[in-house]
Amino acid sequence: xxxxxxxxxxxxxxxxxxxxxxxxxxxxxxxxxxxxxxxxxxxxxxxxxxxxxxxxxxxxxxxxxxxxxxxxxxxxxxxxxxxxxxxxxxxxxxxxxxxxxxxxxxxxxxxxxxxxxxxxxxxxxxxxxxxxxxxxxxxxxxxxxxxxxxxxxxxxxxxxxxxxxxxxxxxxxxxxxxxxxxxxxxxxxxxxxxxxxxxxxxxxxxxxxxxxxxxxxxxxxxxxxxxxxxxxxxxxxxxxxxxxxxxxxxxxxxxxxxxxxxxxxxxxxxxxxxxx
Length: 276
Known about the structure:
Blueprint: H1 17-21, H2 24-51, E1 66-67, E2 86-93, E3 99-106, E4 109-120, E5 125-133, H3 136-149, E6 155-162, H4 183-186, E7 197-204, H5 232-267
Parallel strand pairs: 1-2, 5-7
Antiparallel strand pairs: 2-4, 2-6, 3-4, 4-5, 6-7
C-alpha cells in the first residue's frame, strides 16, 4: 500500500543542514555575526591605513633646517617621522640653568653633556644639549663659564630635535645628578621658569652655544636612519582582525551544525548526552 507524502510524519524526514541554517534563530545569529565581522573589518582597515605610509617624508627631509615651530609645539610630543629633524630657533639663554648630564656616549666614548635652558622669542623654555666632554671637571667648568658669559642678547641655534628620554632617579651619592636628557627632570632644577616648556630637547650643532669657547666637543648626532614605509606591527594587527572576522562566521557555522547533528541524534532515538 502506498501513502501520500503529505500523510507521512514530518519527523520521518530529518532536516538538512541548510534547512536548520535557514531557521529564524540561526538567521538572527548570522546577522549578529555579520555585525561583528563588520566591526572587525573596520578595525582591519584602520590598521592597514597605519601600516602603510602612503605619504612618506622624502629622502633627506630631516636634513632640511626648519623653524622649530613648524616641527613641534611646546608641550607636544614629537611625531615619529620628525625625530632628528634639523631645526633652528632664536632666543636667549637663562644664565642660572646650565646643568651637566652624566652617562653620555659620544662616538663610543663615555662622558658628559653640558646643557642649558634656552628661552625662545615666544617665551617657551627649550632644553639644549650644548656639547660633550669626557671629563666631569671640565663639564662643570664649562657650565659655569656659559652662565657667566650670558649677556641676554638674542642668539640663533641649530640642531636636531629629539624626544624626552624620560626621567630616571639618581643612583649615585648626588641626589641632584641627572643621568637622562629629560626636560621634565631638568624642570625641577631650573629657576624661575615661566611660559610653556618643550617636551623635546635640542642637540646643538654648535658646542659653544654661540656664547663663548667652552672647550666642549660637538655632540655626535647623525641623521636618523630612513624608516620603512611599512609598519609590520600594524600589518600583523590587521591580519589578526581578518582572522577574527573569519572566525565569527566559522563559529556560526559550527554552532548551527552542532544543533543539526543533535537534532539528528534525537530523531534517531540517541541521547546526545550519553555519547562520549
